[in-house]
Amino acid sequence: MSSQDEPFPAAAPDPAASSADDGMTWWYRWLCRIAGVIGGMSCAFAGLWNCVTINPLNIAAGVWMMLNAFILFLCEAPFCCQFIEFANAVSARADKLRPWQKAALYCGMAAFPVMLSLTLTTLFGNAIAFATGVLYGLSALGKKGDAISYARIHQQQKQMDEEKLTGSLEGQA
Predict the structure, then answer these.
(1) Which of 82, 128, 141, 149 has the most CB within a 10 Å radius?
(2) Where is the composition biased (Low complexity) (predicted)?
């Protein structure tokens, strides 16, 4: 059998193509990941600082913030948790989530400690984690349309409004 008679080998599925169905560009995906890592670091440091008190609500908020940091690291940067056996499995499952689901998860996780104990430490510590959720939420809205399609839609709506107006004027006459 010659090399021309052999069938082409099947191409391996591209992991970037499978995750590209959410409409995020590569740079925006990296921006969200970097924001998640920085948000995790800010949650961890602020949570640790929040635990150095005698107020039980501050301690609870600090522990929750450190849990938020762990979840952010686990979902966005599993290489930071390389000694945890299930880190890659959790990261793979988190990558399958839709952007709006990640947005709801991250914003909810960041809002809870602030509601529990409203201090500057909890507010600033959770701000970047909340911003990560906002970034994922913005990506869930989709791409911005081009000016030509907006102009066509506007023109069609204008025509329909004129037709309704002329139809109501003829009905009155």
Answers:
(1) 128
(2) 9-20
